[in-house]
Amino acid sequence: MKKAKFPIYLDSHATTAVDPEVFRTMAPYFTEVFGNAASRNHEFGWTAEAAVEKGRGQIARLIGASDKEIIFTSGATESNNLAIMGAAEMLRSRGNHIITSTVEHKAVLDTCHYLETKGFEITFLPVDKTGRVDPDSVRKAIKPQTILVSLMMANNEVGTINPIAEIGKICKEYGVLFHTDGAQAIGKIPVDVEKMGIDLLSISAHKMYGPKGVGALYVRRKNPRVRLAPQIHGGGHERGMRSGTLNVPGIVGFGKAAEVAAATMETETKRVSALRDRLWAGLQAELDEIYLNGHPTERLYNNLNVSFAFVEGESLMMGMKELAVSSGSACTSASLEPSYVLRAIGVGEDLAHTSIRFGLGRFTTEEEIDYAIQKVCETVKKLRDLSPLYEMAKEGVDLKSIQWAAH
Ligand SMILES: *Cc1c(COP(=O)(O)O)cnc(C)c1O
User: Which domain holds residue 90?
Assistant: First the structure.
């Protein structure tokens, strides 16, 4: 085996490294080309503005939008806030009902909970066992007061991809705005805001090999022309929707990252999904009692989320520090609550605590995957050897039938 560099990064849903090509493109914009893109009176400003507009075009092309529909933000958290709060405030006189789901990113869930305190009514749609929203449930939830539907394109824990085009069509039918959080999906799956009926789309650069702290919100300009109440005031940048001096190097990198993503999407889909499948096959070949979380096919090509029954996810991670992965309990940060996403797809609390999320990426190699398979299998077996429950299960004892002493 070729020597892998440790620790092996398998947490690409949390963030990705800036692609070296992206970094090279950004570099001059920190030093030589440092102008403020809003400076209208001199060369420094014009050059910066041209760079920003180039980036805007690169991002627009990746999602089938026109340049003017891209609003730069600090990331997908801000984009989600602007989309939801901006639409809610703008359309308050038309209605106060918003539809979302139980498995959204916290940037959507917390924003919706905040709006509840401001008199909005939020419907949190359930998802099926694979993590998908049923488009029919969206149709049934829409009522005259509904102003916005916000449903993620792909889930950040289990990688499940929602039927976005179908949902978009239903929203159009009822004249309800459709926002989708594309942080995990953009750059990985082909997206066309026209064909998919998307009105608002959140993107984050650092999830697609661009820099942290920059993102975008796609805001539809016709059929319908979407208007949002700004959430940050001052200066009137970005068509008045998001004031603040633009992060020029960040935007340059974001744009380049979008261009690279478009150019490599097809080959990367094949290469990384093959590695992901190799990982899953390798684990299954050596371990019993492991379960795939999420959708078997409608999932991001770089995602594998697995429950290893009878093994604590946290102990598993501790036992394999050479692998940088996430556990099904760690996502809600400090607390050891099982992930709300796993709970929502019906994974029992016991099993949720045994879950690990593998996030492969552009720089993942076959050697790394082979090492990961070996390391995970070895650690799971070691931990299970210490587990009386696993032993009893192997002996055919139905654990559910056991009368535990003392409660
Ligand atoms: C990472 C992520 C976000 C937040 O993006 P930031 O740019 O880090 O603010 C929002 N939604 C999803 C689905 C994500 O994966």
Answer: 20-260
